[in-house]
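hey m, so remember when u said the tokens were messed up on ur end? i reran from scratch. heres the input so u can diff it against urs
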Amino acid sequence: MKSQDIKSIFESFNQFNILIIGDVMIDSYMWGKVNRISPEAPVPIIMSTKQENRLGGAANVALNVQALGANPILCSVIGKDSKSKTFYSLLKKRNLTGEGILEDENRKTTVKTRIIADNQQLLRVDEEMDEELHPETETIFIKKVQTIISDKKVDAIIFEDYDKGSITPEVIKSIVDLANKCNIPTLVDPKKRNFMEYKNVTLFKPNFKELVEGSKIDIKKGDFDGIFKASQKLHSELSSKYLLITLSELGVFISYNSSYKTIPAEIRDIADVSGAGDTLISTASLCLAAGLEPELIAGISNLAGGLVCEKVGVVPINKKQLLEESLEKYSNN
């Protein structure tokens, strides 16, 4: 592929609107120092030196889509509580729209608080509700998402599922049916609860563990023929066009049209794998919207996922860096 073609692909990302449906959360961090043990119990006393709130979950996918130049539209259900105000302020700070966010006074805004001392996480405290949406809330949420799809040009839809309840079987079916009628590609980053509900989507992206559990086939990570057999079973059951499986240190596997391709991971200095899956599916959504071939979708997405692993913490992809690596790997002039 010519370098100018690759540059044009990356420039085209700026034109796309990507709808992200899923479970959003606040990632809260508390940093401090441990100087002594509590006299009340054998636990460390942390002297807090810094606290910070960041967008997490499906909102991190939105940040990655934004970092790649596209316009993310985030759709989720949060609580009507003090934490929801924090969430909206974080959206505003990152110039993200809240038009697809629905508040429900019967739910809780998810917050994951990590307590870190001397660069080591000592404790994580989760505040959340993971029950499925109440039927009335579910109906309102579906209509909200459908209205956005009808009123705006949507180039791809990502389902970012963390099993926290915002995505239900009815949400999936209603939105996938509408997307297919409108010829909008759909991508899924699944979790266990709704794994087999994502029928007729364009691209389904489980990790290896999720593939094994979902297909109920006992295979080893390096057994690509076995992975292909499991992927064919999933293709048949879900009627998905592409199956993109992340294999961590072994790279990615993509199957389509009764064939498959493996793309090895790049050799990197891995600092932190957090958020790599969010980056990968964000990149895949834009490559899919741009009409790229499946092997190139998997390849560029694989590069993106690897790049963020070189950074400490959950950080969005650097578009310029991804373009440079894509040119180096795929340009033939």
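this time it looks ok to me. The radius of gyration is 20 Å. if urs says something different then somethings off w ur setup not the seq
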